[in-house]
Amino acid sequence: MRTSYGKIIICFMVAVGLLSGCAKGPLNVKSIAKTEHPAALLEKLDQDLSIAKKARVDLLSPTWYVDARASYRQAKAELDKGAALAKILEHIATGQAQLAQANLYADKSHKYLADVIESRDAGFKAGADQYKKEFGKLEADFIKLTEAVEDGDMGYVRNRKQGVNGRYRALELRAIKDADLKDVRQLIRSAESLDMDEMAPKSYRVAKTKLADADAVITKNRYDRQAIENAVAQARFYSQRMHQIALASEKLADMEDEDIALWMEGFLAQTNTHLKTEDRRNLSFKAQQNEILNDISMLQRNQSSSSSLMQAKDLEIKKLKQRIADLEGRTYQERAAKERIAADKERLAAEKRFNELYNKVQSYFSAAQAEVYKKSQHLVIRLKGMQFPVGQSVIVASNYPLMTTVQKAIHAFGEPDVLIEGHTDSTGSEALNQKLSQDRAESVRQYLIANGVLPANKITARGFGSSRPLASNATARGRAINRRIDVIIKPVMR
Questions:
Q1: pTM value?
Q2: Nearest residue to 91 (alpha-carbon basis) of 76, 104, 105, 80
Q3: Contact assessment for residue 34 and residue 86, using Cβ atoms and an 8 Å cutoff
């Protein structure tokens, strides 16, 4: 009876695979033994779907991914309502097969649409998705391409992918220009709204030309950030200059000729005042400018001479410092050598003491109780004889003699720092194993604190779950080895 039922299930799953394969290619559904735990399989499928989504499989093979996610939901619903095991396993097996297909076609999409995917990523990076309408249509066309890869319609892919790629590139370029040229364009628009293009037409034309130049630089090489920043800075400078010229032109338009001359004279006179020179307003504007330029040149020469003198003094001071260092060097080297010898002696004494304690502690334990070994400057006691009830962290009475020996071993090192590590096998969920390992390590810590071995701040407990196996979890012996408590003694070296 059981054999017949099993055959029916297998036939049904094969039929499902064939039906799916008719639309999108063959579906290899592998039957699942009824001894498997459905909840664990369902959790694994959910994790695999999440991993696939992070790898964008939902975009690169949308149909198969959606089918796999639907099979997962069906399996979960059946499990929640307590349906027959065979039916739950059927949906899980189908979901596994569909996800395998999704990963397969995602790889094909990567191969056939590599340039489109690269342009799409560049568009996102530049912020092209801000153009919601255009980008939304483009995303829909991208999905059509990946669906065509699933359907094997490579003619559609070849005919459409270059167009989609070009549109992604165009939107990326638009986003880059909008980001880099936004403030310059705003300056130009502001000038136009204030009729500055009429008040300062020459400066306006220069600013517009610089904006066009910057636009052309971005078009030519959108990824040359240095060239773009230089061109945009030029455009911004001339746009700001145009504003100032226009404002000055507007002011001068309302002034009398003599007032304009006095206004200009004021700039030259103010400069002379700061240079602390005589009043030169009796000279022509050109002559005043020449005198100012001569004064500035003289100041620059004087500054250069002062700078050279300072450099010479700095060099002299540097030489004197080097001479002092040379004289002090011999004393310093001798002192350093003595300190190194003393440090080496102290280190060797500490290593000798550590080795003596290691041999001593190793003799405390039998082979069945613990494995004792050195790890760098730490001593590790792997408690092979430490046993906990299944799924619990309580220390049972049978472990007391072993714990007494552990206390003795710690006392041999005075007041060292101690780390208690808890480890489990891979049975059960990762979260459950992590908690159980932490609880068991903490139980050992609290036992040692309660027995006055060390102050609480000298003992730390840490659980690693099943993340650090010593043997394969595929066998009972390997799992037993992996379920362990390690006591790590860190001597305070003096």
A1: 0.54
A2: 76
A3: yes
